[in-house]
């Protein structure tokens, strides 16, 4: 048997083992109820925020998929307020949802919501962002460390392997922000050690807020150090960072992002942002909705990895991510039906636009 085949068999065995482990989870869902088979599955979806375009996309796709599977979704958004998110989770639990899906604002604080759900026999899925310090049932996300690697790799390559960077990290309450940093550091650390790259200034953007990101970049500019790269961890904070650059009339700086939001794709076309990361939300949202329904029914879910959350190795599913820049916008986000061609190239006269690709809606 080739090494590849051996690895495949091992990963298959692992998947089955993890899948079985989830099936033994808190359960108690629709299938075990008295009206087995007839009861409509109720999913509680608790979101940190809907202020960023990405989370509206997650919600819409998740709800549509769950509906297509015959489930009902009760959606709550906490607008970045921890106390509100806790109350909303409690009300979803009181509403006797069969499974609770949480995008935590604060991954550590939401452990309490998981504990309360478990007391009522409700399994919990952490969606996109990990909930730490608790016995969690499932974590469905993207490869977040790889997001950070791709951002830093792209930036360093565009800078010709050397120069000065300003870094805008994400919200310190979001475990993902730490994972993005971890991936970025993997690429940057050796270059910083060798003296090729310098980080002139960096800070965490509280709540992933563009206003806070703008403040961080303004502080960097005030220091008076020239920089060629702006390592922004997501499109929202990149937007704030770019505003600071524009106000200070700084041009030619390479700016990273993440989420392939429409505004970011338009900035990539006009040159004020250089790259973003495409996270195919349909994979995450559809996958999570399918798994939520299975968990609610007490059926096994096949996880393909585990992620340690400080308390347990959480059965997890990690989806792939892709670097997007001006030369592959068409073949990635546009061809995938993630962003509309006409909107992305809105600022470009029709005669100067690239050829519109065939769009294959997933
Ligand atoms: C998500 C990113 C998003 C950021 C800000 C992170 O947890 O993974 O996609 O841009 O939060 O909302």
The CATH architecture category of the largest domain equals: 3-Layer(aba) Sandwich
Order of strands across the main sheet: 2-1-3-4-5-12-11
Low-confidence stretches: 1-21, 23-36
Query: In sequence order, what are the helices and strands, one letter per element?
Result: HEHEHEHEEHEHEHEHEHEHEEEHH
CATH superfamily of the largest domain: Response regulator
What does the radius of gyration come to? 21 Å
The level of helicity is: 40-55%
Distance between the amino and carboxyl termini: 35 Å
Q: Per the principal axes of the C-alpha atoms, what is the gross shape?
A: globular
Number of H/I helices? 12
Summarize the structure.
By secondary structure, this protein is an alpha/beta fold.
Description:
It is a single chain. The protein is α/β, with parallel strands linked by helices and 362 residues long. The chain folds into 2 domains: 16-136 and 281-319, 3-Layer(aba) Sandwich (Rossmann fold), CATH 3.40.50.2300; 144-279 and 322-348, Rossmann fold, CATH 3.40.50.2300. It is 43% helix and 18% strand. It has 12 helices and 13 strands. It has helices at residues 3-23, 53-68, 82-94, 111-119, 144-158, 175-194, 210-223, 235-247, 262-270, 281-296, 330-334, 341-344, and strands at 42-47, 72-77, 99-102, 124-127, 138-142, 163-169, 197-204, 229-232, 254-255, 275-278, 305-308, 313-319, 322-325. The chain has a 7-stranded mixed beta sheet with strand order 2-1-3-4-5-12-11, sandwiched between helices. A 4-stranded parallel beta sheet has the order 7-6-8-9, sandwiched between helices. The chain starts with a helix and ends in an 18-residue tail after the last helix. Residues 1-21 and 23-36 have low confidence and may be disordered. Bound molecules: beta-D-glucopyranose. Beta-D-glucopyranose is lined by residues 52, 54, 128-129, 170, 174, 176, 208, 234, 236, 258-259.
């Amino acid at each position: 048997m080739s090494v590849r085949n051996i690895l495949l068999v091992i990963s298959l065995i692992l998947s089955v083992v993890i899948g079985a482990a989830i099936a033994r989870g808190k359960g108690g869902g629709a299938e075990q109820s008295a009206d087995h088979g007839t009861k409509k599955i109720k999913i509680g979806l608790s979101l940190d925020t809907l202020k960023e375009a990405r989370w509206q996309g997650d919600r819409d796709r998740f709800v549509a998929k769950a509906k297509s599977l015959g489930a009902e979704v009760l959606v709550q958004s906490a607008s970045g307020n921890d106390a509100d998110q806790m109350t909303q989770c409690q009300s979803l639990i009181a509403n006797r949802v069969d499974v609770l899906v949480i995008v935590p604002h604060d991954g550590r604080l939401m452990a309490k919501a998981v504990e309360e759900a478990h007391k009522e026999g409700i399994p919990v899925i952490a969606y996109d962002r990990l909930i730490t310090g608790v016995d969690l049932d499932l974590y469905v996300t993207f490869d977040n460390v790889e997001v950070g690697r791709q951002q830093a790799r792209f930036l360093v390559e565009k800078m010709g392997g050397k120069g000065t960077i300003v870094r805008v990290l994400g919200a310190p309450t979001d475990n993902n922000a730490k994972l993005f940093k971890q991936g970025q550091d993997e690429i940057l650390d050796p270059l910083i050690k060798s003296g090729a790259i310098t980080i002139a200034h960096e800070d965490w953007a509280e709540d992933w807020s563009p206003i806070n990101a703008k403040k961080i970049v303004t502080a960097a500019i005030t220091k008076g150090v020239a920089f060629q790269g702006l390592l922004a961890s997501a499109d929202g904070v990149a937007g704030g960072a770019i505003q600071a650059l524009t106000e200070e009339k700084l041009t030619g700086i390479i700016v990273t992002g993440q989420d392939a939001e429409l505004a970011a794709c338009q900035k990539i076309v006009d040159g004020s942002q250089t790259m973003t990361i495409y996270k195919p939300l349909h994979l995450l949202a559809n996958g999570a909705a399918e798994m939520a329904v299975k968990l609610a029914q007490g059926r096994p879910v096949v996880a393909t990895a585990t992620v340690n959350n400080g308390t347990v190795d959480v059965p997890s599913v990690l989806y792939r991510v892709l670097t997007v820049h001006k030369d592959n916008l068409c073949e990635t986000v546009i061809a995938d039906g993630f962003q509309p061609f006409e909107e992305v190239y809105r600022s470009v006269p029709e005669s100067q636009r690239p050829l519109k690709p065939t769009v294959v809606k997933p």
